[in-house]
Write a structure and sequence with these properties.
- By secondary structure, the chain is an all-alpha fold.
- The chain has one domain.
- Helices cover about 60% and strands about 5% of the residues.
- It has a two-stranded antiparallel sheet.
- It is globular.
Length: about 325
């Protein structure tokens, strides 16, 4: 127990209750900045927080989805995608993942920290969320959670928040909208694995789900809810937890490929070898909930897909990509003649 407490304080700074408001804010800002450096640090921070507060299930969901974001990033530097997509477009795709990843963490981690300190002193501190530009929607939801302890509703609220948060500054950003989401390139959404999330196990299974119409916030919220139900399904949860507790996140798909039944080999590099750290800032910070009507369906339970074991499906997608590379090379040599 003493070791657990010490580990908690090393991860989340201890703040005495009598600290001034400005000191609280500064400390939380420093902690967010420390862990929001790249995909690796975010993934680890989410998981560590879940181990401290397992009642906040969204933190574990965020960690596992963040692993997928890292794998998608390094795919762009692997053996296949450089043969299919030019460097400029791949760099823009990386920035799309990175910007969304960073934005969600920048908004969500202060919420998690303020919840942590609220539990330490057994009183609501969610009025401080305004200092971090967190939506009034989430301030309301955290206060409701404190009173009701409805863990499922809190997860849904955080999913709703994160997807609305990135809709305007990332999905609808003029550059990303034109060059990525509005281009013919985004046929990848339908045919490959860019819009799929997988949860590996040490038994070699890849469990998960996909989304069609990634640009639409309703579809991403629905995917988030489906992934939550899969992740915490008693049939799979302990296998997922065993994997994430055992396997260090490097950003490379080699993290799990050695366990796969079909022995995948995408040859993607570790994230820290593939990319340098990127500096971000928000030029405009607005409360999305001031101009978005909350759809009651967002809080409804999702319809689960009939098949969540994507092991064979994912293997086939990898083979399709490799065939595409061969076709492209053959076509290139043919046209050169």
């Amino acid at each position: 127990m003493v070791d657990q407490i010490n580990n908690t304080y090393r991860f989340i700074p201890h703040l005495t209750e009598d600290k001034l408001k400005a000191e609280w804010i500064k400390c939380i800002q420093s902690c967010v900045q420390l862990y929001n450096q790249d995909n690796i640090s975010r993934t680890i921070a989410y998981q560590k927080f879940f181990f401290i507060h397992p009642e906040v299930k969204w933190a574990y969901l965020a960690s596992m989805v963040s692993r997928n974001a890292g794998w998608n990033m390094t795919d762009l530097k692997g053996a296949t995608f450089p043969e299919l997509i030019n460097l400029k477009t791949r760099d823009l795709l990386f920035m799309t993942y990175e910007r969304a990843n960073w934005s969600i963490f920048q908004d969500a981690f202060p919420q998690l920290l303020i919840y942590h300190y609220s539990t330490e002193y057994n009183k609501k501190m969610f009025h401080l969320l305004k200092e971090f530009h967190v939506s009034s929607f989430m301030e309301y939801e955290w206060n409701m959670y404190w009173d009701t302890r409805d863990e499922s509703r809190l997860v849904k609220a955080l999913i709703i928040n994160e997807q609305n948060l990135i809709q305007h500054p990332v999905i609808e950003h003029p550059v990303y909208k034109k060059r990525i989401f509005g281009s013919s390139l985004f046929y990848l959404e339908e045919h490959f694995h860019f819009c799929s999330v997988i949860f590996p196990t040490l038994n070699g299974e890849l469990i998960g789900a996909s989304v069609h119409g990634f640009r639409h916030v309703d579809n991403r919220i629905e995917l988030g809810k489906i992934l939550f139900n899969i992740l915490f399904n008693p049939k799979y949860f302990h296998d997922f937890l065993e994997f994430s507790s055992t396997i260090k996140h490097t950003g490379s798909r080699t993290d799990y490929e050695g366990y796969c039944k079909n022995k995948l080999s995408t040859r993607t590099p570790p994230l820290h070898k593939a990319y340098k750290k990127v500096s971000h800032h928000w030029r405009e910070i607005e409360d999305w909930s001031n101009h978005v009507n909350i759809n009651p369906k967002w809080f409804e339970d999702p319809l689960l897909p009939k098949e969540v074991d994507l092991t064979e499906w994912f293997s086939q997608k990898q083979k399709q990509l490799k065939r595409m590379v061969k076709v492209k090379k053959s076509l290139y040599h043919f046209l050169k003649k």
